[in-house]
Amino acid sequence: MAAGTRGVFYSSAGYTRQAVEWAGRNGVALFVLGFDGAEPVSQAAHALVLNGSRRTGRRVGFFAEQRRAQVEKRLPDLRNEIDDVSARATLQAATGSTRKRRRAEDALRTLREVRRIVHRIEGLDPTAKGLDRAIRDVQAAVRKARGML
To answer: pTM for this one?
Structure first.
């Protein structure tokens, strides 16, 4: 690529993991075309959208705005739920029988991973497609951890 230019690709079918990794290493912006516009996939694409929206004001589609509202509403509740289950698991790990202690330690390991995933989700554009599914998966993992107690 020439100096000062950026590679940009659009796809309606998505990208392989290897393509996204390559784009990340080489600063190429990857977008997926959807019903309500183009969604950024790679870090370079997210940066391009963010920088462009700062300069021109970004028009967000109806569905993207709906996704943003859902994510912003659900994340605080999800963090609170993780904290509550973690507190229960910590108490049980400290005071329970050997069997209960092991189950609580397993739950705490699951919750640590869940916290990492939530932290990654918070770093993404809240209008990105797929976040709703990721949040549902996190909620299922929290329910599983609660069931271990």
So the answer is: 0.55
